[in-house]
Design brief:
about 40% helix; AAA family ATPase; AAA-ATPase-like_dom
């Protein structure tokens, strides 16, 4: 059994990159069902949540999903391997693309506005 200190080191503190979290085998709560549901809606989505609620990680996961899907590529497994979306995404018609992700990063906006 892992100690508290060992588990704490597995938390993705300060990381926003979905692929880096999965590469480093850090703790990731699988909410990819919602990723699928958001991708399948035809309505525009505005994600407004407080700071540190995972919005940037969600957008990073969308980028990975829309770029590479859930199949293995470049000699390694998909970063979605073992996650719920791996079973859901193959149902998406293949020729619907391209998908675009608009990622606006305001994290340093106030620091640069002087």
């Amino acid at each position: 059994m892992k100690t508290f200190v060992q588990l704490r080191r597995m938390l993705p503190l300060g990381l926003q990159s979905f692929t880096e979290i999965r590469q480093r085998n850090l703790i990731y709560v699988d909410k990819t069902r919602y990723l699928y549901q958001l991708a399948m809606t035809s309505q525009p989505q505005l994600l407004t949540r407080p700071r540190r609620f995972g919005k940037s990680t969600l957008v990073s996961a969308f980028e990975e999903l829309f770029l590479h899907g859930v199949a293995p590529y470049d000699g390694h497994d998909s970063y979605f391997k073992g996650l719920e979306i791996e079973q859901l995404w193959p149902q998406v018609p293949e020729n619907d693309g391209p998908f675009y992700v608009l990622h606006l990063d305001f994290s340093e906006l106030l620091q640069n506005c002087k």
